[in-house]
Design goal:
- The longest helix is centred in the first third of the chain and has 49 residues.
- The protein is flat.
- Helix 1 runs antiparallel to helix 2.
- Strand 3 and strand 4 form a beta hairpin.
- By secondary structure, it is mainly α.
């Protein structure tokens, strides 16, 4: 039984009780049944719309598959990584998912290498491609961190002062 049939069944049950239409309780029950009926029709309309959208998405998917076949000749495959050999895969697989990694581009040769946080904190490294020294300057970042810490300390102190004032006020009132 679908939603509209169930609402019709409930309406039939309510009418079968032959309740006095002038009573407030019966008016509320009838209003609830009317609301449920409206909601059921809205749900049926939404189901029709979703079915239509799904059909359109399926058509778009089929059209896209045809375009991919025309462009790439058969099954679409991403061959950007064909040069990615097994040694590179081992290197990428060795990364720990819980640790942060950073890409660094060498200013000399323009090649990008991946560093973990510990290597970045050391402040310098030699480019693995050209051997040029790459340095990292965190002085501005350290100043920003100190400024944030100072602001946070002031905020905590202000909250503590506020609590102390309230406690003194409460103590005086007693």
């Amino acid at each position: 039984m679908n939603l509209t049939e169930r609402i019709a069944y409930i309406r039939g049950l309510a009418e079968g009780l032959k309740l006095d239409e002038s009573k407030d309780e019966v008016k509320v029950i009838n209003a609830i049944i009317n609301l449920l009926e409206d909601m059921a029709y809205d749900v049926v309309d939404m189901e029709d719309i979703v079915d239509d959208v799904c059909d359109r998405v399926d058509e778009i998917d089929e059209d896209l598959a045809e375009v991919e076949e025309e462009l790439y000749g058969g099954e679409y495959s991403d061959d950007r990584y064909d040069d990615f050999d097994d040694d590179d895969r081992d290197y990428v697989d060795s990364f720990d998912d819980d640790e942060a990694y950073y890409e660094v581009t060498c200013p000399e040769c323009g090649e990008t290498t991946i560093l973990d946080e510990d290597a970045l904190i050391e402040g310098e490294l030699d480019c693995p491609y050209c051997g040029a020294g790459i340095e990292f300057d965190f002085s501005e970042l350290e100043e920003d961190i100190k400024a944030l810490d100072g602001a946070e300390d002031k905020e905590v102190k202000a909250e503590e002062d506020q609590k102390d004032k309230k406690a003194k006020k409460d103590k005086k009132e007693k």
